[in-house]
Amino acid sequence: MTDQKIEDRSQESGNRRRIKVLIAKPGLDGHDKGAKVVCQLLRNSGMEVIYSGLHASVSYIVKAAVEEDVDVVGLSIHSGVHKEVCEKIILKLKEAGYDGFVVLGGVVPKSDENELKKLGIKAVFRLDTPHEEIVNTIKNIVMEKVG
Amino acid sequence: MSEENTKKVSLESGIEVKPVYTQEDAKSADIGRPGEFPFTRGIHPLMYRKQPWTMRQYAGFGTPQQTNERFKFLINHGQNALNVAFDLPTQMGLDSDSDEALAEVGRVGMSVNTLNDLEEALSGIPLDKISVSLTINATAPILVAMFFLVAKKQGLKPENIRGTAQNDILKEFIGRGAWIFPVEPSVKIVTDIIEYSCRNYPKYNPVSICGYHVRESGATPAQEIGYAFEIAKCYLERSLQRNLKADDVAGRFSFNFNVYGNLWEQVTKFRAGRRLWAKIIKNEFKAADEKSMLLRMIAGGGGSGLTIQEPENNIIRGAYYALAGALGGTQTMALCCFDEAYTIPSEKASLLSLRTMQILADEVGLCDTVDPLAGSYFVEALTDEMEKKIRESMSEIQSMGGIIKSINEGNLQRKLSAQAYNYERKIRSGETPKVAVNKYVKNDSCTEQKDIQVYQTDKKEIEAQLKRLNKLKSERSSNSVNKALDYLKKSCEQDQNIMPSITDAVSSMATVGEITSAIKSVYGGFKEPHF
Q1: What's the farthest any 2 CA atoms get from each other in chain A?
Q2: For a disulfide at B259, which of A87, B287, B295, B321, Cβ 3.0-4.6 Å?
Q3: Which residue in the set A33, A80, A84 is minimally distant from B420, CB to CB?
Q4: Is the Cα dihedral B138, B142, B144, B150 positive or negative?
């Protein structure tokens, strides 16, 4: 999928808004350089981005995702607790009726990816993921849903 | 080929490097002798010829007992100082049994709930001989109080204890993010520790100002030094308001700086930084004692320079960063380990970092003579240029209304995030070369390394830590805990130095979480500016 197709669709439907993303820093980890770089990257790619700030609670993330009706929640975790935190957040998002996608970025071993995908993480971005891939992956998963 | 046709070389700090330097470029160099003002060549007359730099790898994980074993492993392999890593709950003022601690207990550092934990972590380590650096900030008053109580239990006098508390909260707001209270009360607490140490712990360094994390957040090398100086000046000014003199305080400050990127830029930022700091302390703060003017520092091989691709290359990078630190005349050194783009370091990776520094100090001659680069046309010219750039970066902070305002309004964080984004783009585009990342990249795209040991917390150990906490809570006198916490709240409300009341609370076996909650009930929490 290309940028062009998303734009075309928005013109067709007339009311398809820009892709909206919540970038969230759950838990206690304070490493926010990556999250903020991704915020800027997605904004520069035309998406609307909300940033949670550091130490966001699970309930804050769920509330923001639902109330802001974001297409994608991007979690950033660098301290190694991604499995536990993702599991908890995905469960609470489901309970709240959130029907968008959750992606993860940070220091995440490849060996954890299968398990994370089983939990419901749609994509994992690591330190070596090219910027275009982050942007395109998000566009693609949103496009697939829009159909 | 004429000079005009060569490719332009620009350093991150915005200095252009000429292909050739001559005597003309270095004629104004204000270098003097090592150990003499303005200390460009080093803070001691004989530097490493008398004593090599201190080696202080950052270590800590799991329980106090597990960490104690790692400390002893490092000491048995020749490390002569410790740098303690605490887990995030300890850094954020939460106990191991808190809901918010969620899976973080013992993850990125050691878990400490009470005095007993720190005592166990330091058991068998003579605190008057091994200098211990506590990497702790928002909860620093609690850990510093614990540290001196442990020393007392070891039968040592506080006046003989060496060591350092990081205790630099302003950089936590800029990068690293382990803040709890709002900016103003946070700075008040930093000053409490500085004041209390100056009056009671004469050999202790109560603060280590961290350009390191400012650099990791997107600052250039010149900004790293300049912003750290603005932070240090803020703490110094606050300390002077407590009836202390510049000569009582300035000599107790230490700095933590980063090393990655261009070798010459790193070496000269240290030389220029030493010179500028000496001038600031002498001219602006009117210190008389030359010891107050010394920029004492640890150089840390920077995590941002290391890559997830071909992680073994990080061993080589670490060696060059160590070389830059030594050529720059650092007092202490630590290196990020080669596996840190994946995990907290394994024992093997920690040992490799220590060996890297030992080889440099003992095998290849880095300790033979003081400041071996002195007098190089290029190095002296670049040192002069760096000093100008550091001054410019200090003016940037002043034009944002000072360090506290720029942080409170979020302007400094936004500026550095924008720079970090641009830096990332230059790496991704190949404009800034990075081997095996954007140059000479191997075709197989899988970067996962099977031989890297990803750290897993030992669940049994963590359960034991929780049991220990529960046991302690049931055995201690809740009456004396409550009394101590009330006294602490009162001293917060009455704007007194909180160190005496925190020491009481720690002695009563109040936990890190309870003490933090008491302080927070008075000071509130920090609200991050919008990004």
Answers
A1: 43
A2: B321
A3: A33
A4: negative
Q: Which token pair is B6?
A: 């060569």
State the complex-level ipTM: 0.94
Nearest-Cα residue of chain B relative to residue A132: B428
Minimum CA–CA partner of A36 in chain B? B417
**pLDDT tens-digit profile of B434-486?**
999 999 998 765 556 667 888 888 999 999 999 999 999 999 999 999 999 99
Per-residue confidence (pLDDT) for residue B438, from 0 to 100: 95
SS3 (DSSP) at B405: helix
pTM score of the predicted model: 0.96
Dihedral angle sign, alpha carbons of residues A78, A84, A85, A90:
positive
Residues of chain A with pLDDT under 70: 1-16, 147
The CATH number of domain A18-146, selected from 3.10.129.10, 3.40.710.10, 3.40.50.300, 3.40.50.280 = 3.40.50.280
Q: Is residue B466 part of a domain?
A: no
Neighbouring residues of B83: CB distance < 8 A, sequence distance ≥ 6: B56, B57, B58, B59, B133, B135, B334
Chain B interface, mutation test: which of A28, A41, A119, most B Cβ atoms within 10 Å? Answer: A28
CB contact (8 A) between residue B454 and residue A54: no
- Domain enclosing residue B281, as ranges: 3-429
The string of DSSP codes covering B227-261 is: HHHHHHHHHHHHHHTTT--HHHHGGGEEEEEEE-S
Q: What domain count does chain B have? A: 1
Tokens 């975790």 locate to A77
CATH code, B220: 3.20.20.240
Per-residue pLDDT of B416-431, as tens digits, reads 999 999 999 999 999 9
Q: Is the separation of the CB atoms in B14 and B267 below 8 Å?
A: no
Using the beta-carbon criterion (under 8 Å), do A81 and B103 form an inter-chain contact? yes
pLDDT for B102 equals 77
